[in-house]
């Protein structure tokens, strides 16, 4: 069983990490090819491409210009580098050594720059969302660039897995990079959905759903869950599995 989550725009490269072990991104050369395209852009062009402020455009311009494949300088393990709502729910700083080992084997972070990251893969500060329409050698956007690479990678990840279940805890922006037509048919993709009771009905509220994806990832990792039935027992922060609302590959969790 594997879990996929999204990265985060906000980063933390200051806080001391509790674990020193690290690994290297598998698609570092592919990331370098994207950086070459990004280095051609001015701060103004970056701002227009990404829809971000002048201050953020300049910051990312200098990030791209200084980026290289040297993983010894200005890098941090991905699971401790990202700092958004998903990662607050994940709370990797609470992981012990066994948790980190389980995460390294089962958790994958999809990335617009690095393609796929294991938790301990060292990364440099960057901003490149999967939905960005960056022209590259494969097409006009990052889906064209990463679709086949990431799908083939996930197929290989499941070659020796007994439980061929992919728990999709990534946002739609990232998860749709997987090419369903080319993903092996024996891989079952399951997407947990988190809903809140509001105004007499259950609704998805983005900020809560993001944190819940991190909470479920943490729950799976800390309890060493490797099957779908175990995931349905997820009960953190008041969530409960709702078989009556679940349909197909979507399993619904609600809280009042």
Automatic annotation (TrEMBL):
Protein family (similarity comment): Belongs to the UPF0246 family.
The name this protein goes by in its record: UPF0246 protein KQI89_01350
InterPro entries: YaaA
